[in-house]
Amino acid sequence: MAKYEGFAQIDVSLPGHQYPIIVCRNGLTESALLRKIVSSQQVLIVTNKTIAPLYLSSIENAFSDIQCDVVILLDGEEYKNQQSLDKIYAALITNRHHRDTTLIALGGGVIGDITGFAAATYQRGVGFVQIPTTLLAQIDASVGGKTAINHPQAKNMIGCFYQPQAVLIDLNTLTTLPDREFRAGLAEMIKYGLLVGGSFLDKLTVALQQGLNANSQSLPELIEDCCRIKVKFVESDEKEQDQRALLNLGHTFAHALETYTHYQQWLHGEAVAIGLYCAAKLSYEMGLIKSELVSQIEELLKYAGLPHKIPIGTQLDELRKLMGLDKKIKNNSLRFVVIKKPGDCYLATGVTEDCLHNTLITSVEGE
Fold it and tell me: Domain boundary residue among 118, 150, 176?
């Protein structure tokens, strides 16, 4: 058995709740570590059909001497819905899980979001642990306690803030991740780079130019950096009343694109990549940045092998209408995270319809 290798532990400290984010290799086969972060006598593992054959048995082995039940969902954003949530509730009730049970989310962002929401609402709240297996989930979705399911009309509109007991990031899971899924996670890295700028953006740019992949020596440090960046935002604003909303850079466009395509055309990170480009174009239209920065962001997305333009044929009026369901709307006003420079972003109100229309038009492929 391969030896456990710990890279970092980032401690999240919130009022009345503290938990670790553990970055490692071979953590999923380290039964002592799993039993340390899960102390209950009942466990429900929630995973999907893609991940189960790869990693489920390792987790089950760690809990072979206690009650350990499993729910295996279909794989995909379109299954982050009420029907999948009901399967989790049914398993908990049928197998008589009590209030001191623990739910383990083994998978990507979809599994983490839906398992967290189930944990938050079953018997008004039970424990759960995140074991994210995609890059996007490791650096973003598993950190900070956002849980949700999708509605056919809007993404992540039904959910709550509910923090896990621990996040276990085993970098070995990235070696079985399809290349497209890995690249989708890079969009969130680029987002962090634009939010904080400085040495992190420089380091990320070099890594992307060199062809960042699951075996890159720089990857563990970049993942740790991303987690630390997000933890700072979460600790300062857990319920997204202020600064944490900046983490939604590009997401107003991205969520509208995902909803427009019924969650079937884009991986979340791919939609975020297009959203980041749109956010850059919007910032340019508002006179906040020069075209050179738009080009720099476009180059970063190209280095990452990500799409960045809205496909030709997209009904822009429909896309604009879907933005009206964004969660950042306040006082009936749509707000966008915009860029003044890397490391200096803010939440803008009063974006004119003309400005937004021009942004969408100029962000379409071929424009």
Answer: 176
